[in-house]
Amino acid sequence: MTSSEHRWNARGEGYVAAQVLVLAGILVLPLLRPRQGTPRGLRVAGTALILAGGTLTGWSGLRLGPNLTPLPEPQVDGQLVQTGPYTLVRHPIYSGLLLASLGWALAHGHRGALGLSGGLAFLFDLKALDEERRLTRHFPEYPAYRQRVRRFLPGVY
Fold first, then answer.
1. What mean pLDDT comes out for the span 82-96?
2. How sure is the predictor about 155, in pLDDT bands with cuts at 50, 70 and 90?
3. Number of domains in the chain
4. Most exposed among 50, 123, 136, 140, judged by the fewest C-beta atoms under 10 Å?
5. Distance separating the N- and C-terminal Cα atoms of the chain
6. Regarding predicted confidence, which is higher, 6 or 16?
7. Quick check: is 156 in a domain?
8. Smallest Cα–Cα separation from 144: which of 133, 152, 136?
9. Mean pLDDT of 95-120
């Protein structure tokens, strides 16, 4: 990696660029190639997941307040938030976006968007690993928090 590439991605900008592209694909693909006849049950379940994911994402962002950043690098003067949705999972914004993207794919009955949602899960897992290394360096209390709270799914993962 060259020094300019390293500087460009020093705070995790590459993850953010990738997630924007994947999220855009998930959103746009069903609109460009709509699928007719999606079963009502899938549309209802998908809509419920979109609402749940949007609510979790919004609640998590509000709870972070000035600590919110799309980058895996924490704010220099930030604080570790361990309340609200952060008592359930360490990365609730990622969990919410995954729920919403899965819901969008299901509501539209679109396999391509469903596949991209799987790719987004993989990307968020990589980004979360990098973010957790950075949080451990920045916050001495992070390892204890990490032991208590799961990454994306309460009690599971």
1. 98
2. confident
3. 1
4. 140
5. 32
6. 16
7. no
8. 136
9. 97
Is residue 82 domain-resident?
Answer: yes
Tokens of residue 50, six digits: 């979109």
Please check whether residue 155 lies inside any domain of the structure.
no
pTM score, two decimals? 0.91
Q: What CATH number is given to the structural domain containing 47?
A: 1.20.120.1630
**CB within 8 Å of 98: residues ≥ 6 apart:** 53, 117, 120, 121, 124, 152
Q: Is residue 20 assigned to a domain?
A: yes
pLDDT at residue 104, rounded to an integer = 98
- Measure the CA–CA gap between 130 and 30, rounded to whole angstroms: 31
